[in-house]
Amino acid sequence: MLEVETIEVSYGRIPAVRGLSFRVDKGELVTIVGPNGAGKSTTMMTIAGALTPTRGLIRLGGVDITGKRPEEIARLGISFVPEGRHVFSQLTVGENLLIGADMRRDRAAVRSDYDRALAYFPILKERLEMPGGKLSGGEQQQLVIARALMTRPKVVLVDEPSLGLAPIIVDLVYDILRKLRDEGSTLVVVEQSTHRALENADRIYVVRNGQVTLEGASAKLTDKDLENAYFGFEDKTDGVAAVHF
Amino acid sequence: MPGQSRLFSIGRYLWEPATLCAGLLILTIAADLSQNGVLIFVATNILIQMVMVIGLYVFIGNSGILAFGHITYAMIGAYADAWLTMSPFKKSFALNLPDFLANHSFAVFPSLLVAGLASGILALLTGLPLMRMGGIAISIGTFAVLVIFNTIYQNWGDWTFGSSTLVGIPLYVTEWVALAWVCAALVVATVYQKSRFGLALRSSREDEVAAHSVGIHVRRERIIGFALSGLFMGVGGILQAHFLGSIAVSAFWIPVTFILIAMLMVGGQRSLTGAVVGTLVLSIVMQALRQLEAGLQVASFNLQLPHGLSELGAALLMLVILLLRKNGLTNGREIPWPFPDEARMIEEGRAKALVRLAQPPQPLDRTSRLEAQDVSVQFGGLAAITKVTVSVARGEIFGLIGPNGAGKTTMVNVLTGFQAPTTGQVLLNGTDITRVTPRLRTQQGLARSFQAVRLFKDMTVLDNLEVAGIGTGLTRRAARDRAWDILAWMNFEDKALVRADTLPYGDERRVGLARVLATAPQFAFFDEPAAGMSDRECDDLMQLISDIPGRFGCGVLLIEHNMRVVMGVCQRIQVMDSGRTIAEGTAAEIQTNPAVIRAYLGSKSEKTYA
Amino acid sequence: MQGFIQHLADALSLGSLFALTALGISLLFGIMRLVNFAHGDLITIGAYALIVPSSNPNAVMFIGLWPVLDTIIAICAIVVALAILCERLAFKPMRGANPSVLMIASFAVSYFLQNALIMIYGSRPKGVNLWPALAQSVSVGGVRLQLLQIVTIVTTLVLLCGLTLFLRRSAIGRQMRAASENFMMARFLGVRANLVIAAAFAISGFFAAVVSLLYVVQRGTITYDFGVPLVMAAFVATVIGGMGSVLGAVLGGFLVGFANVFFQVVLPMSLRGDRDAFVYGFVILVLLVRPAGLIKVKSVQERV
User: Fold this and answer.
1) For B113, which of A227, B96, B553, B569 is 20 to 30 Å away at the CA?
2) Shortest Cα distance from A102 to chain C (angstroms)?
3) How many distinct structural domains can be found in chain B?
4) Is residue B138 assigned to a domain?
5) Does any domain span residue C215?
6) Distance of CA B90 to the CA centre of its chain
7) Residue A171's domain is classified under what CATH number?
8) Residue limits of the ABC transporter domain (chain B) (predicted)?
9) C150 near C139, Cβ under 8 Å?
């Protein structure tokens, strides 16, 4: 569905992503984990069109979308939920949802998606007329995911959905993400916690210093594998002993 | 050879004004030799405008803030000078001045100084309210100043002859007088820009938040630059008056403002060279177009273009420059110093620093303490941190860790004064500093680095550190010594004269730390210094941080995600999650704490953790 | 009573013009951080479009002689087209530049337009007598008011309601509000940057056209810098209101209008000429008390 091939991205002269590749198949929930500054968010921003890679290719359903503008990419079927939620705080919850559907022409389907989104996130139904900015963090996170679904995307990219949320809310968010996957959505989720990745993903990519250091089906990976790849220990016996919790 | 070295440093110091003056001198001589009256007139006019553009540059270039009201100060100067220098006979035709002014006329040079100073003082007074606002609002506010004084002068008939043109101002400005003032302006602008004031203002242009964080009083620096800038505008206005012999309020209005700003932008608003080059280039282009408007004989037919073309040309030229070359023709650079003496400067800096570093550091006062007690912060309805207490002793390396969004950065913002706590207080050695601004906290010994580093990009590494010294009250010389000390201590002096925005990423972060140290902090805050660093760079960083308390006698508060760094350097660690403290202790204790493992790397048993 | 209501009408009608102008500026600032100095020249051009292009100081009416509705439509169309043209030629290539660069670019566009006007129409003032019937007075509940003032106030009310409805109810309005809060996020949801910006310029141009017609009736004379006083007042109105806030721009516009009339009334005759100095001085005082304006807009403030 979505293929990223050896992309390189820099901020000015500073490389953030150095030859990173991954792919997501239809109906998969893929998690990208890695420490702060590893290049995860940069990769997401690049796929969504906010940044242009200096090298490499991004394909959606076989079509090259590298370097297209964000709105074009959104219209081609990638919905990006950036880190930090970004609800439109002056717009009501209902308006936030409708913005997601403004580019669509299939009015009837929009209506049914709207109802479906509210069924997924019942809390939003109670808050429809409230300005987005007045919602709690967890409600905002639900709103932005619901909003992303309103675009009827082929792939949803979610950047650090757990950021700044209480663990119980994080569980709720992941329950929803898994449910979406079960109903056929394709998702890429960026996460810092290896445990949450193992728990929720079908497949995992570990990213460090702008490159993939480990990939695999989560069923076949262990905590230890992930931590080693995550922290970049070269000498496993020594390094782990010094740092392992 | 100390003699030669001093000669070099003076030469380096005055290189730009000297070369620019020399160039302008040649052009003026050429114009003079032509004995072409029109050419000399045009040349003089260009030189006078150049004084004003240099004036604009002093503020706009160094502060990075656009100002549209500067022509006001030229008007103030021109009229004040007319009141002083016109003959009583000529004054009596148009003006109704108080007796003292009406019956005397004063020598031109002292009058110029007095009137120029009046412009500067007025700029200072108008700058006081303007600079309380932020960036683009200041620019709009300068329009208000323009309207206010334009209105007053239009209606102040007794003093200004109202909307009529005031004639009979003595003529004394020749191309040589104008050139002399351009040279004076260039020298003063250079001295200012290389002084602690200029450096401080430039740092705020590069990054206002970072400038505040190293103790720079940004508003004050802006006011100083604004006043000096107004003074030059005044001098320019005065010269213009004594060159044309007449002044009118309506001439000090938007069209002239536009031309002056366009000159600065075309040349490059970030360099003194740009001010000079821009004035020359735009004047020449406009003059050429005016020639075409007047008609030009090309072979057998007369090429004549419609009137107003020169103005349209100026506007288009400026748009094209803004589009293609944001920092103007000079790209914001000065004329480079041609003698390669950087190695010598670095050697000198290093040698002196090593002598100072050989002395033992000040003994450490381990009793001083920075504490945050029961601090809570709410954003809207969201609790970012809830009742968190943090206490750091001087000489200690203290780690604050936790997952992203745990509230660590908010906590640092509370400690450094960038964020007011909703409840709770911050104490430095027992004194409540909860309401103290970040800048004053820096001066009291709290300094921070930023996740995004926020170096002053268009400045050298050395200057980045010097700004921090200046911000905490040192003289330029002392700040420079301190900067060399820190660079030498970090073995980083080879890069002292490199521009910050050309540094590789790891070095950029190291300079961020060095800049914190250059404020001579009691407590230093490092916000994710290892982010994006390679393992080797992390090793160096750990060594560096471990050595800081012993050398600089300060406490270190470290926020970091790289556990190798945290566990390797911190004597005490506090773990936050979801805005609360969940554990505190030594590295060994933290590593075995189950709550920390759950919160930080996540846990399979999350369902039970709520 | 007559006096007070007269002053109130003066203040409201002047405030209306300022508010409409400030709205045109504020919309663009909210969405693309552009402080558009050239907005004043759009107003000027709307007025010049009424007459036959010629440098002869005696103006000959052209579009101004058409039936009222035709005149309004034609002027609006011309100004809106010009606004969009300015966007395409000057501002679009600079999209994403910092606000200072955009502001200075708009200053250049303004200078260009003013000098183009001088080239075509000459620099001398021209008398333009549009819709003289509006100069009549009418009696409203025993108080005599100028018809133009009533038309100005009513037009403004209608436009404000219309804009509010447009921003609240239409999809494009919703997208504009979203874009002014977080442009990139809106684009991630498929909102077309070009469309939203063009719409903002079109609305801004439409407001400029309306102001232009109302102001030309009031003034009766046009010059190449006809719109400059309005744009200056609108600038300070947007700063007082809070940069980027649409509501703030309206409040600020009316506040500046009221300050104008207030000083006109209270200043002694000898100081009346200095009214603008007092008004702008008052503005600076307001900003001393509230440097961020009446309504603070979060997305304009920088975060650490």
Assistant:
1) B96
2) 7
3) 2
4) yes
5) yes
6) 45
7) 3.40.50.300
8) 370-603
9) no
Of B212, B264, B247, whose CA–CA distance to B519 is shortest? Answer: B212
Is residue C8 less than 8 Å (CB to CB) from chain B? no
Answer yes or no: is pLDDT of A234 > 80.
no
- Domain total for chain C? 1
For A225-236, letters b (16+ CB in 10 Å) and e give: bbbbbbbbbeee
Residue B453 sits in a domain of what CATH number?
3.40.50.300
Residues of chain A that touch chain C, judged by Cβ-Cβ distance less than 8 Å: 48-50, 69-71, 74-75, 79-80, 82, 86, 88-91, 95, 98-100, 102-103, 147-148, 151
Q: How many CB pairs under 8 A join B and C?
A: 132
Domain contains C262: no
Question: Residue B604 is nearest to which of A13, A199, A242, comparing CB atoms?
Answer: A199
Q: Which residues contact B549 (CB under 8 A, 6 or more apart)?
A: B364, B394, B395, B396, B397, B555, B556
Chain A neighbours (≥3 Cβ pairs under 8 A) are B, C
Binning pLDDT at 50, 70 and 90, where does residue B601 land? low
**Cα gap B228→B220, rounded to integer Å:** 13
Which of C36, C102, C104, C279 to substitute to test the interface with B, most B CBs within 10 Å?
A: C104
- Give yes or no for C111 touching B (CB within 8 A): yes
Chain C residues with CB-CB distance to A48 below 8 A: 188
Band (B584; pLDDT cuts 50, 70, 90): very high
Mutate to test the interface with A, among C177, C183, C185, C303 (most CBs of A within 10 A): C185
Which tokens is A142 given?
């639900």
Whole-number percent of chain A with pLDDT over 90: 42
Q: B388: Cβ–Cβ under 8 A, 6 or more apart, which residues?
A: B372, B374, B375, B376, B407, B411, B424, B576, B579, B580, B581
| Encoded amino acid at B160, one letter | T
Domain count, chain A: 1
Let me know if residue B319 belongs to a domain: no
B122 closest CA partner among B251, B227, B247: B227
Task: Specify the pairing of strand A14-24 against strand A186-191.
Answer: unpaired
DSSP B499: B
Establish if C92 belongs to a structural domain: yes
Candidate from B532, B592, B603 with C-beta closest to A195: B603
Nearest CA in chain B to C288: B129
- For residues B224 and B325, which has the higher predicted lDDT (pLDDT)? B224
Touching check for C184 and chain A: CB below 8 Å?
Answer: yes
Tens of pLDDT along A6-57?
A: 999 988 767 789 899 999 999 999 999 887 678 888 999 999 999 999 999 9
Domain that holds residue B193: 11-252
Identify the residue whose tokens are 């994080």.
Answer: A170
Characterize B323-339 residue by residue with b for buried, 16 or more Cβ atoms within 10 angstroms of its Cβ, and e for exposed. Answer: eeebbbbbebebbeeee
CA dist., res. B81 & res. A160, Å (int): 65
- Classify residue C171: in a domain, yes or no: yes
Amino acid (1-letter code) at residue C33: R
ipTM of the complex: 0.91
Contacts of C288 in chain B (CB under 8 A): 129, 132
Please check whether residue B259 lies inside any domain of the structure: no
Tokens of A210: 């702008």
Q: Is residue B177 classed as helix, strand or coil in its secondary structure?
A: helix
Residue-number span of the structural domain to which A18 is assigned: 2-243
CA distance B282 to C191: 41
Contact A171 B563 (CB under 8 A): no
Beta strands in B429-522 (DSSP E): 431-432, 446-448
Residue C106: domain span:
2-224
pLDDT tens column, B390-435:
999 999 999 998 876 688 888 988 998 888 999 999 999 989 999 9
